């Protein structure tokens, strides 16, 4: 029986107090988690008081002044949405309109696969959520399978499939000497073994400035008759980082299978988050379903991509102008937001300690952090640590 007594006008329940004391001991074994290798870079950068500090570790687009950007097409979509729509729950599978428009981007505007209703697709919590939803789907319905992850990859890929309890293997991808694709080793690792190809497409349109061109790899796999899965995100190509809006799609044998797969994806989403957020989905569907807004988006995404390409050219040019004996062709040969520079962990440490330049220790440079104002300083620093 609980013992109650009056104390300072309050009723105390001894069982509750004792219970709280015992519960506090449950977490004594919990140790601080290791810092995320990417987010930890930003934390260190923010703590640095140097006026010369440069962050080329951030995975988000910045303009030439180093500032975040909200696209004009997004602003216009928000104006149209404001006050005109309710904020009711979306279905577990998310916005049907947003998903339809998203599939057109990946599979093609006039895709027969879409017309045949062979694609199971649901709105997801950006690309990360799409990957995690697929990882759980894989574990539930192919429990004896494993995931092959390229070396290197986005560090969170390992976390996602690890927490979904899917065994992991790796395959060669990056060639350290050429700083390009190690095609021979990759093919040797993934010879025909009945694989299912899964694409994490976080930068469509952002790499080249043309969403159709950036979907070429996916179209090749489709033309070759593969069944594939795709995680799509609007974080980068629409700047909707904080809206967490994306899509997971799985190509199936026929419409009946697609219906079954979608129902199971929704069932997996239910205990995770029930249903996805509505605002980002409304922004995306408003932009992609309106010809004028879509045209504006295509123009704006090309501006972002062109700035990244321009910074690649400028960084390489500055390094070559300094007389570096090393080849820096890979800076302009690679595409997208990130550049695998070839810098060693020790050289990265020197950049941070001596020049206040922050990046992940594998030498990956976010070109979004490079501006006309800091590219010369960055090139000089890289030249110094690579002499």
From TrEMBL:
The keyword Endoplasmic reticulum does not apply. Signal peptide: none annotated. Pfam families: Aminotran_1_2 (PF00155). This is Aspartate aminotransferase. The lineage of its organism: Eukaryota, Viridiplantae, Streptophyta, Embryophyta, Tracheophyta. PROSITE patterns: AA_TRANSFER_CLASS_1. InterPro entries: Aminotransferase_I/II_large, Asp_trans, NHTrfase_class1_PyrdxlP-BS, PyrdxlP-dep_Trfase, PyrdxlP-dep_Trfase_major, PyrdxlP-dep_Trfase_small. Homodimer.
């Amino acid at each position: 029986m609980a013992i109650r007594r009056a104390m300072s006008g309050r009723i105390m329940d001894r069982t509750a107090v004792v219970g709280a004391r015992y519960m506090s001991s449950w977490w004594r074994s919990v140790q601080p988690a290791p810092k995320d290798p990417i987010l930890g870079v930003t934390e260190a950068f923010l703590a640095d008081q140097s006026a010369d500090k440069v962050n080329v570790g951030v995975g988000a687009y910045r303009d030439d002044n180093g500032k975040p950007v909200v696209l004009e097409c997004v602003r216009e979509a928000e104006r149209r949405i404001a006050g005109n729509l309710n904020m009711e729950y979306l279905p577990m599978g998310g916005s049907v309109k947003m998903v339809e428009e998203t599939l057109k981007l990946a599979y093609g505007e006039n895709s027969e696969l879409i017309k045949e209703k062979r694609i199971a697709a649901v709105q997801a919590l950006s690309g990360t959520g799409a990957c995690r939803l697929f990882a759980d789907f894989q574990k539930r319905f192919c429990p004896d399978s494993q995931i092959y992850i390229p070396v290197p990859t986005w560090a969170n890929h390992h976390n996602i499939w690890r927490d979904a309890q899917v065994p992991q293997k790796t395959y060669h991808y990056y060639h350290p000497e050429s700083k390009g694709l190690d095609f021979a080793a990759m093919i040797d690792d993934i010879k025909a073994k009945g694989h299912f190809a899964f694409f994490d497409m976080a930068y469509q349109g952002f790499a080249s400035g043309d969403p159709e061109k950036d979907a070429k790899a996916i179209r090749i796999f489709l033309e070759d008759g593969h069944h594939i899965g795709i995680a799509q995100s609007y974080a980068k190509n629409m700047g909707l980082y904080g809206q967490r809006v994306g899509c997971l799609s799985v190509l199936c044998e026929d419409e009946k299978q697609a219906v079954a797969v979608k129902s199971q994806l929704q069932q997996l989403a239910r205990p995770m988050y029930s249903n996805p957020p509505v605002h980002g989905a409304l922004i995306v569907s408003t932009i992609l379903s309106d010809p004028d807004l879509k045209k504006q988006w295509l123009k704006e995404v090309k501006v972002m991509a062109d700035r990244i390409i321009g910074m690649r050219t400028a960084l390489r040019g500055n390094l070559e102008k300094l007389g570096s004996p090393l080849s820096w062709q890979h800076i302009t040969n690679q595409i997208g937001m990130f550049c695998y520079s070839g810098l060693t962990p020790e050289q990265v440490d020197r950049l941070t300690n001596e020049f206040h330049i922050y990046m992940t220790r594998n030498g990956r440079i976010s070109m979004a952090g490079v501006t006309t104002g800091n590219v010369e300083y960055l090139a000089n620093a890289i030249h110094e640590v690579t002499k």
